[in-house]
What we know:
mainly beta, Jelly Rolls
Amino acid sequence: MRSHFRISSSAAVACAVSSATALMTGICSGQVLALDTASNPTYSGGWSAGQNGGSGFGAWSFNGTDATPAGTYQGISSSPPLGTAWTMMAQSSSSGLANVGRSINGGLQAGQMFQTVIQNPVNNAGIYTYRGFDILFTSGTDNNVGGDNTSALRLSVFDYFNASMNWNIHDSTSHPNSAVSAITTGASPMVLSLTLNSSTDYTLTLAPESNPTSPYLTFSGTLVSPIDYVDFRDYNTASSGPSDTANNLSISSMEVMAVPEPSSLVLTGLGAIGFMLFRRRK
């Protein structure tokens, strides 16, 4: 498994010196191109297919979600520690499926980062039952496009012959089973960041929201197709309701931002250092 940081420590220092917002890998945040949160007033009356809060994303699609009982597979939760979140709830440990997704307007481009804050489940229905959850980055117009085989990148956690419930990464060239357990990442809110370094090369990072500069996992790989849709699927243990954080998959925010080049970050940092030295001399 290739695992390394793309941005140098000097660039991270430049971010800190320039008082910019530091992201999980030490990258300064750039222009926000798309942003939506579960606390957006659009969702004050609940969460349903066709809603489109924020900007830069398409409307939510629930295609593929179990149809009945109506309104109980998705909802808005305000349970700690994630707070207000879009929440997916499976109604059956053997067959229930909650499936949601939305498009990224214009698609994710080289030099851009998709970032979302989630609370993943820590319970599965049991070993050998093939229950779990996944996140798909695809190219298409719908959230239910034929499953994982159509995705450019798939992140999955399933309990089928995998008692450790570790995260798996599937792209065009690699299918590693990481050493990072969903029990670890689900203990508190987690930031998932996907950066396209080029049209085909990406860097994926999973990190605790409370300490984003100390990631659980950083992985670099190659994509076989573009990304213009993100899909979340929960096949997990039956939920007892919106506050059941052990069994629900919840999402509090999602955004796309432009990532500054490392060279520009260093120059910004050097300029800030020079300005501070000049003020001290005065």
